[in-house]
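Course assignment 3, question 2. Fill in each field.
Student: A.L.
Task: Predict the tertiary structure for the chain below.
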Amino acid sequence: MRRIRLRTLLLLINLLILILPLAGIWFLRLYESALIRQTESELVAQAAVIVGAFKSSRQRLIADGKAQPEAAADAPAVDRPAVVPADRMPELALATDRVLPPPPDPAPPDRPATIAAGLVGQQLETVIRDAQQVTLASIRVLDPNGVIVASTGRDAGQSVIALDEVARALRGEPMSVMRYRERPATIVPGGFSRGAALRVFVTMPVIVDDHVVGAVMLSRTPRDLAQAIWGKRYELGALAVILVVVGIGSAVLTSRLITRPLDAVVAQAGRVAAGDLTAAGTIPASGTREAEELSVAVGHMARSLAQRADYIRGFAAHVSHEFKTPLASAKGAVELLAQDGDTMSAAERTHFFGLVASGLDRLERLVRGLVDFARAEMAQRASGTVDILPALREVAGSYCARGLAVAVSGDDALVAMPREAFTVALSALLDNALQHAGTRARVTIETAAMADCVLLTITDDGPGISPDNRARVFEPFFTTARTQGGTGLGLPIVRAVVGAAGGSIELLDGEMGARFRLSLPRQREMPAT
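Answer field:
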């Protein structure tokens, strides 16, 4: 199955992140709510101007004696200030406010309009019609009973008291509502028609001396989202191009910072897997810390694999060489015995049989040493503790029985190391002293308990190690006691066992004999019984 590339996935993710805000605005209708509130605020401002004109015209008519104040029945008292502040008006929102059905047609009134309101309507008729040419709002001026006294339409003299918002406004409560349109409009891009499916209605009372003397009702269709987008099509198009460019740029930048180092890592790993160990070079640096750390780690891993491969090749060469000598000796002796055994003397046959036995013994020691070395190389840090002085005295006692004088002294402490592993390491060091210094050698073992480790110093009085051989003593199969049966695996086994426990071994300078120091991890607390 064809899988998507990382850089393509990053591009898609970046574009999706950039599109999500726009999709949220579309699906949550946030912008439509903003358009409705904008329309509402515009209608409130227009209504406030007309209310002010209503009051001014009414006051002038009363002062000129052309009209009388409304009767108490026609102008109900309200517990409200004479001027309705704009912040007292409700704010519409699609998410919380219900959209009401289309308004019913105005009906004939139960009684005619009041004289004062009728005269005011006549004076405002021209004003509201001229204002409609600019604001595109439907404007109606009402008397205290809901009769239309001035209108931008043809419904003057009709009553709209049946509308809930009108009835409440005539009781002194400013109202803003949304209603569905009676019929949809034909939309022409860039034209004046508005295609929203609803209209915003604002009804504001005219309050004089704490009495409602009339009302002003305005309505208008807000701009819909399609019109808003069409009006900003060039800006939105430029924004879309910018978003796409930013998304592509982000994907390319991320690709350079992440995918290029990953591609280099994959290519390098592939070359190393194919056997090209020269590929263990430095991967080009990247712009992110994680990718840089990955590059460095893979480079180290590749170099480690190369070193391990070199080690395995060298190890295989050493093994083949060590096995070849006793095998060749035994094979030659067997061939001579098979060919000339009948004519040989007893002493000659014994000599050749001894060669075969010696070769087999050496092969057995090599195999045993290789098994121990492999176990030490593969050993994990196993749990366990050992009380160092009793363990030293126990191992030293077994070698004293073989003629080696071993003296143990120093601090007692617990070592965080399995008892078996400690015994293997110490036995290999004492075997090394026994082979090189002989059975009459003296070995001293001193311990020193430090804060985090226990230092173990082992010194013998043998011939020591020459300067030329000091750098090679921990190499597998390197030995100067081959004639004494040495395999060259003792010290490598010690280093592997101690290293698996978290410790180390080093060869120290000494005036005579060989001197080794082991650093073993210390167990700070007594193990639970």
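Instructor remarks: Residues 407 and 454 are 18 Å apart (CA to CA). The chain has three domains: 33-223, 275-378, 380-521.
Grade: pending
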